[in-house]
Amino acid sequence: MQQTSSVISTYSADTFGVCSMLYELGGMVVMHDASGCNSTYSTHDEPRWNKIRSNIFVSAVTQMEALMGDEEKFITDVIAAAKDLNPKFIAICGTPIPTMVGFDFEAVARVIEARTSIPSIGVASTGMKSYVDGASKALLKIVKRIVSARNVSRETLEKSASKESDAAKRVSVLGVTPLDFSINGQDKSITSFLESKGYDVLGNFCMDVELSDIGNITSSDETLVVSAIGYEAAKFLKEEYDIPYEIGLPINGVLHKKITNDITSDKRIAILGEGVTSYSIALSIINTLGVKTVPIVTVDIAKDLLDRMNTVTETKHLIYEDDIKEELKNYDIVIADPLFRPIVGKDKAFINLPTECFSGRIYRKDIPDIVATSFIEDAVKKYL
Amino acid sequence: MIKIAVYGKGGIGKSTTVSNVAAALSKQGLKVMQIGCDPKADSTITLRAGKELKTVLDLERAGAPYTLDDMVLEGFNGVICVEAGGPTPGLGCAGRGIIAALEKLEEKRAYEKFKPDVILYDVLGDVVCGGFSMPMRAGYADKVYIVTSGENMAVYAAANIAMAVENFKDRGYASLGGIILNKRDVEEEESRVETLAKDFKTEITGILPHSEYVPKAEKMGKTVIEAFPESSMAKAYAELAKALIK
User: Fold this and answer.
1) Among residues A148, A9, A176, A174, which one has the least CA distance to residue A89?
2) pLDDT tens-digit series, residues A262-300
3) Does B37 touch chain A (CB under 8 A)?
């Protein structure tokens, strides 16, 4: 069957990406939906649900409300809840039902903000795209909304940025959610890595940060995009505030930016998953072990980001099960979430690299910290 | 960039008016893009000299990759023509189709590539559902103009549209730019439309007389501006065009 996943799992939806990105910021996030499957996010699907308190709701829209365009009911409910909870911001996001009736999330967010004076954003997730799309939009929207509220001009920033030349460079890490990095401390490993390189880390957006940290993001000297989720926000900060960005996830304590090693092995490795992680792992393997490794991005990625990666190393984008299965015939070793295993030939070596965005909590205890440890290198060496 | 959405009762002459305005603006040296937001896909027909234009939704439906150039056709005097198109008649959702088509245009960076001075959204009939309010949403048109005659049903439809625009004011949507009176020579026509304009605290932006040049030009598959450039009707369209972008 074309364009289906008949054997492998599917990635978390964009709606969850929105919720996951905004989870720790002290706001109120409302999924506009009839409940059903999305309600599980608001109860226990979120990895941090029993550790960090957050206000995540489902609107429970009815068929008649959707048909009759009764948006006032939604607006009134959101405002009533906001009055009780006094959130730092309100985010509303979509699912298939509001998508099909053309619900205008940005406009309704403007109405809610006008009536509550609470900063509000609308993210037009559809429930039909991946978490990368939803989380990316949510990060960009919240950054734009909070930064614009501070009304900080580039000139003001330049003045305030004047500091001692030997002061540590400030960096913001963009695109961090448990969907890619789990809750096993990898976010903190990214911070430790950057601090060890002399950086002052303003935050991993958005784990273990507050809304006020987003307000300070424009004082970054640079940003580091560690997943495709962070790319659009990085481009915005570059365009509007001239803050340069780097793309890549440190692997085993090294941030590889280019290929520095010759291919010396006749083995071929495929690494499946999110774009920036797969690309960074591929560079790490090539540079440390000299084995041809191809990142195969199996979820949304911006075309210009993919093009950038391709200028450094061959990177493929395949999202359909049949295409992935066919492509994997060309490799000896496959690194992927265990739920990809059924479409990988039995003659291939398979290295488990679970991710919450693909297999949820099933393999959580087996998710390695690839940022701080030599897990990838050690695992690959066994098959060389 | 001036962005205008034109609404009005079905059959009141929106597409004829918009196409003539587009042609007149192009004659004034402006780069114009006209986007038909009607499943019938006939908004730009008099600008295209019989050339076929695939609708955005037809291109989507075909499923094959397509480019921005496949979605547009350069019509009379360089007017960039786009037709949103719609679902199979009697099936699907036309309103959602308009949303999808306009999103596709944005996705393909149509506005950045062509950099039009003026964008005209020619929108089907009334604002019957969320989809048909898309052209007046933030980021699309800045001003809404309503075409009406003095006929009861046309004035009624115009009032409904003006009411919708009024209801949307706290959403950051387009505001009401004015009323375009397309005369049918009914009794007390101007005063009735003046009352309508007054009720919605707006004004009559332009008055188009009932003219035999309009059907004649349409029969030729052209705008009046192209077919009868020296006619009084062409002058009326040119004046309206100037008023719309003032």
Assistant:
1) A148
2) 999 999 999 999 999 999 999 999 999 999 999 999 999
3) no
Q: Select from B96, B131, B171 the Cβ nearest to the Cβ of A110.
A: B171
* Region A243-261 average pLDDT: 96
Among positive and negative, which fits the CA dihedral A134, A140, A143, A149?
Answer: negative
pLDDT band at A377 (very low <50, low <70, confident <90, very high): very high
The mean pLDDT of B202-228, rounded to a whole number, is: 97
DSSP state of A13: B
Choose the closest CB to A104 out of B93, B170, B171: B171
Closest CA relative to residue B83, chosen from B131, B114, B123, B31: B123
- Look up the pTM and report it: 0.90
Closest CA to B4 of B17, B233, B39, B113: B17
Pairwise CB contact (< 8 Å): A102 & B99: yes
Which residue in chain A has the smallest CA separation from B138? Answer: A107
Tell me which CATH homologous superfamily contains domain A14-149: Nitrogenase molybdenum iron protein domain (3.40.50.1980)
Q: Which residues of A touch B170 (CB under 8 A)?
A: 110-111, 114
B3 is catalytic: no
- Pick the residue with more confidence: B88 or A366? A366
Query: Quick one: what percent of chain A has pLDDT higher than 70?
Result: 93
Q: Over pLDDT 90: what percentage of chain B?
A: 85
Residue B10 near residue B132 (C-beta atoms within 8 A): no
Q: Tell me if A101 and B134 make a contact (CB, 8 A cut-off).
A: no
Comparing alpha-carbon positions, the chain B residue that sits nearest to A108 is B171
- Residue B96's alpha-carbon distances to A112, B105, B137, B177, in angstroms, are 24, 14, 14, 25
pLDDT at A47: 87
| B222 annotated active-site | no
B170: closest chain A residue by CA = A111
Domain A152-247 is found in CATH 3.40.50.1980:
yes
- Topology of domain A268-381 in CATH is Rossmann fold (3.40.50)
